[in-house]
Structures are given as C-alpha cells and as structure tokens.
Write a structure and sequence with these properties.
Number of strands of chain A: 17
Number of helices of chain B: 15
Shape of chain B: globular
Strand content of chain B: 15-25%
Oligomer: heterodimer
Structural class of chain B: alpha/beta
Distance between the termini of chain A: 40 Å
Shape of chain A: elongated
Number of helices of chain A: 11
Structural class of chain A: alpha/beta
Largest sheet of chain B: 9 strands, mixed
Helix content of chain B: 25-40%
Radius of gyration of chain A: 23 Å
Order of helices and strands of chain A: HEHEEHEEEHEEHEHHHEHEEEEEEEHH
C-alpha cells in the first residue's frame, strides 16, 4: 500500500506504541477538544478499499456515538509473511453545546499474510477498558471462526443480506457462539432493514378493533426487491415467531404455517423491482391491512379495511435503508434483540 | 526540601542507574527540589573516569529523563557526580570512598549525610554492608544521618528474607533502612489514600456491605527480556505478587491510620497482610492458578514461548502467570474476595485495582436484564488515573441502560506531568520519610503468605498443574474459571 493510500487512516504507528501515540495526541492538544468514548466500536472488513469506506462510516458514526473505533482490515491475499500495520487518527465534531470539539479515536489495522489469526489479540490489546465492545463483522464469517473473539464482544453486528449461503452462515455462527458460551447480543442489519415496516405493522394492532384481523388471517403477501428475499424471510420469521405459527411447509415461492385450532396462514413472497420491502398485505375474512412504500417515498402508506366497510389511512415513516443509517439506528436503539433471536429459530427452518 | 547529602550508588554501571536513578535525581534538580549541595558518587567495578561516567549518564538522561535535559542545568548537575572504582569486597576501596566522602563533605558542606543505594544483587548485600561498617560509614555524628536503600528482591522466601533483613539491620537500624518498591512511588498508589480518606463518598462504602470483590491486576506484554536465569529461579509469584501486588492490596484494604506518619500507615498495612487467610495445600489447589506462556503473537508479532527464551530451562516449571483468590479475614472485608493476577506476555500492559460494587437488587431496572455493577478502577500504570463506571439511560423513548465511564487522567487533568516513581522515592529517602517504603515486618509477613503457596506447588506430592496460555492472550482459561465459579469475571482492561 502506498503512503498516499494510507493517509486515509491517519498517522502510521508501531502496533506496540499505539497507546503512547494516542496519549501524545491528547497531551499536545490545547484544550479546545474533549476526547469522548462510550463504546469500543470495532469493524472487521476485507481489503483497503473497504477500510477507506469504513473510515468515512466511522466519521459519521462518531458524530452521534462517542467511541473508540477499531478498524481491522484483512488483506485479500492471505499468502506471504504475516504483517500487521497500524494507524491512528481522530474524528472531531463540534458539540451541540457549543465551542468544544468532541473527538473520537480511530485505530486502524491492516493484517497481511497469515496475520488474520492475530486479530483477536490485537483488537483486545487496544480496547478502551471497561467499555462495551461492539463488533461489526462485514461479509461472511469464516469457518471455523476464532471463538476467542466472542469472549469480549457485547454486541455482534453483521448483515445477513451479504451472505451467499445464509443457512450455513447462521448455523456456523450459532454453533460457535454456543461452544464459546458467549452472551453477546446479535444485531443483524438485515433485520434492521425491516424495522420501520415491523413498527408500522405492530402499531396497527395497538388499536383493539384491528386485532380481529389476526384471528381470521388467511394470507400475508410480501413484495421485496429481487436481492432482498433474505430480508423478506426475516419478516416472515418475525410474523411466525410473534404469532406462534408452526410447522412451515414450502408452497411455491412462499410458505404455509399451521396455527392451533385455526386455519393455516399462507405467506406469498414476490420479487418486484423497488425498495427492499415495498409491500406487506395481511388478508383476512373480515378485512385487510396493507402497508405500501412508494418507489421514491420516505413513508409507508397504510390502509386498514375493517368489517362494515370501515377504511382508515395512515402515513408512517419508513426510515432509510442506507447501511450507515441502519447502523446508527441499531446502535442508538440499544435493543437486546430477544425478538430477533426468536425469529431466527423460525428462519433456520425456512432456509 | 531534604538536607544536603551525598548519594552513593553501588552498582553504578548497571542499567537501573542509567535508566532510572540518575534521570530521577536530575529531574528532582530540574524541579528545584534538590539540595544545591547534593553530590552523587557511583561505586562500581568497571574502570571509568569521572568524565566518562558523566558523559554516559548524560546520554542516558537525554534518552530517559521525562523532561529532557537542559544543557546548562546538566553541566551544573554533572559537576556534582563522581565515579569511584572498586571491587565490592575490597576494603581499600571503601577506605578511599570514606576519604572521598569526607572531602566532598568539606567542599560541599554535605554535613556527613549519606544515602547508600544498593543497586546490586542481594547476594552482594552482606559484603557491601560489612565493608561499610568496617570503615564506619554506617555511623553518624551528632546531627547527621546515614541511610541505606535496598532494591528488591528482598529474599526469595521467608527464611532468606529474614536473613537478609538481619544482615541489613546489623549495620543500619530499621529506621534508616529503606526497602524500595517502585509501585508505591507511583502517583496513583499515593493517591489511593487521598481517594479513600480525603473524600467523604468512598470510605462509607468501602466494606463488605457494598463491595462485592476487588481485582488487582498486573499485566505485561513483555517476556523475560534477557532476565531468564533470574526469572526461572523466581517466577511471577515471588517476582511481582509478593511485593508489588500485595503492597497494593494492603493499601486498598487497610484501615484509616491514626496519623500520616510512616509507621502509622505501615502499621495498618501490616495488619492487612497478617489478616490474609492462611491457605492449606487444598486451598492453594482450589484458589491459585499458575501458568506459563507458550508461543503466540504480541502487537502483531510472533513471540516464542517461555521455555524457548534465552537461558531458560527448556523443561522449566516456573510460572509466568499467577492468579489467586485471597481473603482478608477482618470485620471490614468478611466474605469479600480479593482476586490478584499477574502475567507476562499478556495482550496488554497495565497495573490496576478494580473495586467492584455489589449489583443493584433485582427489582426495577434489573428485574428483566442484567445491569452491570459499578466499578471503581484505580490505574497505577500506564496512564495513571481513576475511573468510575456507572449506568446511564440511553437517550430515547425506551429505557435502555448502558455503562458509561467517568474518567480522570493524571496526564491530562493536571498541567504538570507526574514525577517518576523513583523521583518521589529518592526524595523521600533523602528526607527520611519511609512511608512509601516497605518495613521489615511487612516484607516478612508477605513472604509468609507466599511461601505457603510455593510450598504447595513444589512440595506437594500432587502439585497443581502448570497451565499453558498463548502469548498475547489474557492468561489460562483456568484463571477465568477461578472467577466463573463464583459467578464473576475478570475485568476488561
């Protein structure tokens, strides 16, 4: 990597001198800045280009979440002598209160050759003590995973949308976490993609009049972008886990679930160009509920049809599907994702 | 400011003199705290002139002095530094030393005050002390003083420590004996008493009612660094726990002293060491984990295992890691475990004390989810400071609780850099203040505690296993289990 390329990551430092170099930065500061950190936010990615993109993400992230950012890049060609290089820099933002700049540290590592196995130790050695560790693993998990990583991770972030073989990935991840007896929170950005849609759907059932729709539900129709079938499957799993549907069987492009003492419910999935999830329609004998997102719109248009010809319309925020927005929402929410865990149990039967 | 004196360093050509002692004395001078008449005499075997010695020291000071070197000040300081070549066992060398000291007294009006610093292996102590006594350098006249500073290790077990202490005290009385433990010279170690006894909020909580447990950690990414033969005969328990970590434990656990005098404070520290629960062989097996580092990676670089280190026995059973659960059997600390660990070749370096408070009751916010406990961390090194972890609500409509840290760093909070531990300790020794030095009974009681563990390891027919851990990790899994059995975990450093 050329010197110019590495400038994106800040000042190069010896791996063993990172703590000292960071201390120096703050000691020489004239007092106009405040170092802040509430979490350790680590990103694992592949390649220099991904590291550069993530440095931009970190800059944006630190404007909302004070953290120590650790960026671990794995060089794509795993051959050659193992080598670990490091850089430090700081992201500063003017505080809302006024004159002081709030600064967060970024430590970047590039693991070349067979140095990937040194990643856990290197990250652990550079954490801001006592603060939670959020680890964002980009791309697919290797098999086997270095399970020592799980020992200190509080929140594991990943995006199952990126996985080619989601079934194998979920299985590898689950087994490795069970073996390590880790108690980490799983944050799937693909799950976050459906957050606003799930919120819109849930809100509709806060009204007791609408609950009757769920009892005689016969079909749920979901339209998703062709590449977002995995996002739609997570939504199906959410419905099934929350409404206690069971015994899924494949049915064309969808599934049929059984319900205790009631008619089965069919899920119909269709791929349509547009938003990741553009439509979710619940159909029952007594009425229906449709949540639709326009191609360009920032809102969900909700229509509720109840017995007696009553029709209600609502406009609800649909949020952004940009990865950085999903991440910010995910971290800002601080959810423990118990509902996701339940949905995962269903999802593994659908894959 | 201390009285004028002459500091005589035995072992003056050693590493400690160049890296620590001379930079420390120079920095005291730079801060304006050194008596103008102070002289330094380096005593060693190697042939060297005063000029050579001064040049070498200047190079070292430029490298190791925390505030650099001012040319003018260094010239003035170096004029007061002398070199005295002699074998440690040569009486003539001591006679000429006595003559040189008398001459310096006369020239610089140092009034016969002498501070002898034994920066040599303990095996050299008897010879040097015998010679000092033979030429009367341990004797003082009315109004003057002669003191001795001894470096660790203070013995290798209780028996040898007692013998060594006897040798020293046969020549210098206990009040003039200063056993240096540089951890006690660290700003934060000194601040421990201030934190506890100058703040109203901590002391009422400082007991078994509110504190769940205490963790004291010493971690080094370094290996034995050329000290293989010494380390292989000592091990982590003797090298670090017996002195540094038990000293920190006694500062955390002691009762408020009746005064801030050296003996009042040390009286309370000794009581803590004496209250450490005696361990039987079975207790050692259950409560102490020993480990040795295997090959691994530190700071991204491959490092060898302990047994592959230079001049280390390839079948060595010496521990480079030790973790233990101790109890201070007194009213204040009943049922509060003190977990102490030290390891070499760990992922990160640092020494700290973490006081973990009890969990909040399982009602309200902690009814449905675990809320972490409050932790007060006193960082001894590096980045000396104190932090307190508390729980806070995340901004937003729902109640999500996250830990946040209130942090105080010495390095950035005060404009002035903290003095090096040796600066404070040398200045105290010159002033005759032994508060930050280990007293004979402290050392011997600490050995008594450690000896029981060593005996269980080395004399039991079924000694506990020596666990292996990869370099760059946080020690053996058995150490994690030691805490996991009690439903606890080591702190994340």
């Amino acid at each position: 990597m050329s010197a110019i390329e590495t400038l994106a990551f800040g000042q190069p430092v010896e791996v063993g001198q990172i703590g000292r170099a960071l201390k120096k930065i703050w000691e020489t500061d004239a007092g106009a800045t405040t170092r802040a950190s509430l979490v350790n936010f680590a990103i694992v990615c592949r390649g220099i280009e991904a590291m550069k993109k993530n440095t931009v993400v970190i800059s944006e992230f630190t404007s909302q979440h004070a953290c120590r950012a650790l960026l671990a890049g794995i060089a794509p060609n795993g051959a050659g002598e193992p080598k670990v290089s490091a850089w430090i820099n700081a992201h500063c933002h003017l505080s809302r209160a006024g004159a002081k700049q709030i600064c967060c540290e970024q430590i970047s590592f590039l693991f070349e050759g067979h140095a990937e196995s040194r990643m856990a130790n290197t990250l652990f050695a550079n954490l801001d003590s006592d603060l939670p560790l959020y680890l964002w693993w980009q791309g697919e998990f290797p098999d086997p995973i270095d399970e020592t990583l799980w020992a200190w991770v509080d929140r594991l972030i990943y995006d199952s949308f990126e996985w080619k073989d989601a079934r194998a990935q979920f299985s590898t991840l689950r087994e490795s976490i069970e073996r390590a007896q880790a108690h980490l929170i799983l944050c799937d950005l693909n799950w976050a993609r459906s957050l606003h849609l799930r919120q819109a759907l849930s809100q509709m059932f806060d009204h007791p009049d609408n609950m009757a729709l769920l009892d005689d539900l016969t079909m749920i129709r979901i339209a998703h972008a062709p590449e977002n079938r995995s996002t739609a499957l997570l939504l199906v799993s959410w419905f099934a886990a929350q409404l206690k549907y069971s015994n899924a069987t494949a049915d064309g492009s969808g599934f049929v679930f059984q319900r205790d003492g009631k008619l089965p419910v069919k899920f119909e999935l269709s791929a349509e160009a547009g938003r990741s999830l553009s439509l979710c329609e619940l159909m029952s004998a007594s009425g229906g509920l449709q949540v639709r997102r326009d191609q360009q719109g920032d809102f969900f248009r909700v229509e509720v049809r109840l017995s007696g010809g009553r029709v209600y319309h609502h406009l609800l925020p649909a949020g952004s599907n940009e990865t950085t927005s999903l991440l910010l929402w995910e971290i800002g929410g601080g959810s423990r994702h118990q509902v996701y865990r339940k949905a995962l149990e269903v999802l593994e039967t659908l894959l | 400011m201390p009285q004028p004196c002459t500091v005589v360093i035995f072992g003056a050509s050693g590493d400690l003199t160049y890296r620590k002692l001379i930079p420390a004395i120079y920095n005291i001078a730079a801060d304006g705290d050194l008596p103008a008449a102070l002289s330094v005499v380096g005593f060693a075997r190697r042939e060297k002139t005063d000029a050579q010695f001064r040049t070498e020291l200047e190079e070292a000071a430029r490298k190791y002095s925390r505030q650099g070197v001012n040319d003018e000040l260094w010239r003035s300081f170096a004029d007061r530094v002398f070199y005295h070549r002699s074998e440690f066992g040569d009486l003539e060398g001591y006679k000429s030393l006595a003559a040189q000291l008398e001459k310096l007294d006369a020239e610089r009006n140092t009034r016969g005050n002498r501070l002898f610093y034994l920066s040599v292996a303990p095996s050299e102590f008897p010879g040097i002390l015998e010679m000092l006594a033979a030429v009367g350098l341990n004797k003082t006249t009315e109004g003057s003083w002669a003191r001795v500073i001894v470096e660790k290790p203070f013995g290798k077990d209780l028996k040898s420590a007692q013998a060594l202490n006897q040798v020293v005290n046969d020549v210098f009385p206990e009040k003039d004996t200063f056993r240096i433990d540089h951890y006690l010279g660290k700003e934060t170690a000194q601040n421990l008493m201030v934190l506890r006894f100058a703040n109203g909020i901590f002391e009422p909580l400082w007991n078994s009612r509110y504190i769940d447990h205490v963790q004291i950690t010493g971690a080094e990414p370094l290996g034995v660094e050329g000290r293989g033969p010494y380390y292989d005969s000592a091990g982590a328990l003797r090298d670090m726990v017996q002195n540094h970590l038990l000293q920190l434990l006694s500062l955390v656990a002691m009762e408020p002293p009746v005064a801030l005098s050296a003996d009042a404070i040390r009286d309370e520290k000794v009581k803590v060491i004496r209250s450490l629960r005696v361990m039987s062989g079975a207790d050692v097996a259950a409560n102490v984990v020993r480990g040795q580092y295997a090959a691994g990676a530190i700071n991204g670089k491959d490092v060898p295992g302990y047994r592959q280190e230079d001049r280390v026995n390839p079948q060595s059973m010496t521990e480079t890691y030790v973790a233990l659960k101790a109890h201070v059997d007194n009213w204040r600390w009943a049922d509060v475990p003190f977990y102490v660990r030290f390891g070499k070749r760990l992922a990160k370096g640092g020494t700290e004390i973490a006081v973990q408070f009890k969990h909040v009751p399982g009602v309200l916010f902690s009814r449905d989810s675990d809320i972490g406990p409050n932790v007060l961390v006193i960082r001894i090194q590096p980045d000396e400071g104190i932090s307190l972890r508390i729980q806070a609500k995340r901004p937003g409509a729902s109640v999500n609780i996250e830990p946040v840290k209130m942090d105080f760093h010495y390095g950035t909070s005060f404009g002035k850099a903290s003095p090096e531990a040796y600066e404070r300790l040398l200045l105290d020794a010159m002033s005759g203040d032994a508060t930050l030095f280990a007293r004979r009974d402290e050392v011997e009681h600490a050995w008594e505690f450690v000896d029981r563990i060593e005996h269980a390891w080395h004399e039991s027919p079924t000694p506990p296993v020596l666990c292996e851990y990869p370099s760059g990790s946080w020690g053996p899994g058995e150490a994690d289990e030691l805490l996991a059995r009690d439903g606890r975990a080591w702190r994340r450093m």
